[in-house]
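Quick log. Single chain, no ligands specified.
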Amino acid sequence: MSTMYIDGVKCSIGAESNILELALNNGIDIPNLCYCDSLAPYGGCRLCIVEDERGAIVTACTVKPKEDMRIRTNTAKLREYRRSIIELMLESHQTECNSCKKCGRCKLQTYAKRFGAKAGAPADWNPGPVDDSSPSIIRDPSKCILCAKCVRVCKNIQDVAAIDLAWRGANAAVTCGFGMKLADTDCVGCGQCAAVCPTAAITVKDDTRRFWDALLDPDKKVYVQVAPAVRVGLAEEFEIPAVQSVGGKLVSALRLMGADKVYSTADSAFLTLEEESRELIERMKSGKKLPMFSSYCPAWVHHVENKHPELMTELSAAASPMAILGGLIRKQFPEENAVSVAVMSCTAAKAEALRPELTKNGRKLVDIVISTQELAAMIREYGIKLQSLPDTEPDKFFERVSGDGELKPAVTLTIDPNKCIGCTKCARSCPVSAISGSPKKAHSIDPEKCIRCRTCKVGCPAGAISDTTGFDGELRIAVANGLANADRLLKKIADGEASYDFVEVMACPNGCIGGGGQPESCGSVKAMQKLELDPDLLPSAIELDCKDGLCSVREILGDDRDEILRAR
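-> predicted structure:
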């Protein structure tokens, strides 16, 4: 294996495409602001400059590692250059850091302290108005450093291109173009731009004040639903070991903060998947046009409306898990003082809550949507030590029981016993306890509990989890993560190069776990840029009946079944 030396440290060259990646993989921190492992090298910020044996300076993100190459990352010359670069950035950057949403998490602020950069823009300096037209994200041009991460992820990963670089020199800026705001563009609110932004130039819209107001109002009853991916994000944010459960602690935290009831959106996910399965089987039996497309990712639905309106009739009519649980809450608690809150990993859910189909009888099914990031900030503001809280079971409308055999699972996730290393990571991370097994022994997945969140598959270190069909006959299913991947898949289908019965699309590159509202650490996994065409899970049909005194889902839905379970 080839090797090179970074600051005298011998580094083996593997699949790394540039020196920066090799250095980071070997624990050597080279400063960078425009680099992102899921994007092509850009070389715009110039902070990752390194010095070779001859004294030549190159950017580490654009140079490939070579055999016996020797570079240094922290010479006096490099430190002076980096300090000058940071000071130039600060000259055109709003530096009211103490009141900034990203204070303490801003990479520019971190590097300014690290290299002793002192300069800063005047307090009243402002190159343009804040764009808060989107219900999901906010753009603040006064904090943009022109790293172009947002532009590249929006164009290359999401194929949306809602923003771009414009003008040159001192006038250069990231803009929507032609004086438009985000709300006027094809922005789907996925929040991937905010996820990669190193400063506070693009952030998730903050709805924590509204949530606090509801929690602290003695006349309000607050009913909260929490998506499965949220607990994964909170575990990362609060550095809770994988061996500890987070879901129960999260329920305890929300009740301590004042929530009257806390539900898991995983419960309504079963209803979404059941409705989707029924609809697919009906389509196949009746000979309707295929493929059918999933509809529970709001950013994907918005993308279809913007760029593929001809596919609207092929979208599943099943409502999203958030919408279904919001409908159940409204039906069960119709009082005027009831406040329905959703905690989601997805920033697009903020826009989804405002859609007309999520307003029934003049009331929104979900009043407030906050992201994982926002909930983490609220937990810190309250002073809660999440790791020390006891585990508490969430509230439930009904108890899930096995199906009656009316429908069979179309596809099921399985664990290969020959690959499984028994690390138990999948079982610990599963939000619905669908995986069982003992340490150092092969695990198994219960298809009647699985909700197809793929937390286990993404996190499996041995690649032991795969998707196998359980349907009678052959069922062709495609999965695409990331909207650019989805568009490539749609082109293949339109050109006749591929044919499928069902297509599932998640707008974010790593699915819900990598949602725009998740902590930054959840986006550190290299984005899946290649198109995935693996068989995926369609759930086993389940019947939800009375158990332990809980209402049955049929009793709750009553005559409003289609109104609650279907979005269109």
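The chain is about 30% helix and 15% strand.
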